[in-house]
Amino acid sequence: MENITCHGQLSQKEFVMLRLFDSRKRLVLISLPFFLLVFIFLLLMNLVDVYALSGLAVLFWSLAITLLYYALGICMMYFTSQKIYQKDPYTRRTNTYFINEEYVFQQNERGEAKHIWEEIHQVFEFANMFIIYLAPTRAVVLPHRFFESKDDREIVKKTMKQCVDKDKLHLKKHS
Questions:
Q1: Tens digits of per-residue pLDDT, 41-66?
Q2: Is the pTM of this model over 0.85?
Q3: What is the mean pLDDT of the chain?
Q4: Which positions fall inside the YcxB-like C-terminal domain (predicted)?
Q5: Contact 163, 101 (CB under 8 A)
Q6: Could you state, in order of their start, the residue ranges of all structural domains in the chain?
Q7: In this structure, what is the dihedral angle of CA atoms 95, 98, 18, 123, given to the nearest 10 degrees?
Q8: CATH number of 4-9+93-170, picked from 2.140.10.30, 3.40.120.10, 3.30.190.20, 2.30.29.30
C-alpha cells in the first residue's frame, strides 16, 4: 500500500462535534442516576401528599425533567467547546498526516507523533470525518475534507479495515 498524505486545520464545528460525541456516554450515565433521584423525590412527595400525582404522572415528570437536564448538558457542552476551541491554539494548528498499513504519522510545526494501528483504541466514521481514538479520551480527527480525493479516503478506510480489530472499528456502511 502507498502512503496517503492529508492535511488541514480542524474547524470549530468539527471540534464541537468531536467533544459532543466524546461526552455522550458520560452525559447519559449522569442522567440515569439523576432520573432515579427525581423519580424517587417525586414519588416520596406524592406519598407525603405534597403533590397528588398518579404513578404515570410521576414517571412522566421524571422523564421530562431528566430530558431537560440532558438538553441543558448538551447546550453547556456545545458552548464550552466553542470557548475551548477559540482559546486553545493547539486545536487550531494545521496538521499533516501520513497514513500507511503500519501507522498514522501526525506532524505539525510544534512536533510529531506516530500512532501504530495495533495500539488504536477505537475508530469511528461519520458523514464527514474519521475519529481515531488513541485512548478512551484522546483522539485524532480526520475530516474527509483533509483528503485530496475520495480515492485516498477509500484507501484509508480499506487500511483501517485491514489493520484495526473488527470490534474496535465502526465505519459507515456506504460512502
A1: 988 887 766 666 777 888 899 999 99
A2: no
A3: 90
A4: 99-159
A5: yes
A6: 4-9+93-170, 12-89
A7: -170
A8: 2.30.29.30
